[in-house]
Design goal:
By secondary structure, the chain is α+β, with helices and mostly antiparallel strands. Helices cover about 25% and strands about 30% of the residues. The chain is built from two helices and three strands; from the N terminus they run βββαα. Strands 1-2-3 form a three-stranded antiparallel β-sheet, with no helix packed on it. The longest helix is centred in the C-terminal third of the chain and has 7 residues, at about 35-40. It is elongated and about 35 Å long. About 0% of the residues are buried. Keywords: Plasmid. This is Putative large secreted domain protein. It comes from Ochrobactrum quorumnocens.
Length: about 40
């Protein structure tokens, strides 16, 4: 799992390096004060 605090992108990469999940969370949707808070909760 990776989170880029500059771009606020969240991603999951498989052990072979393939992107499994990629998105930029939206605080108005997930309800956490920041995207980093949301990432840390996941």
């Amino acid at each position: 799992m990776r989170y880029n605090p500059v771009t606020e992108e969240f991603g999951v990469v498989s052990s072979s390096g393939d992107i499994r999940t990629y998105y930029r969370p939206d605080p108005t949707v997930h309800g956490w004060p920041t995207n980093l808070d949301y990432f840390n909760d996941q």
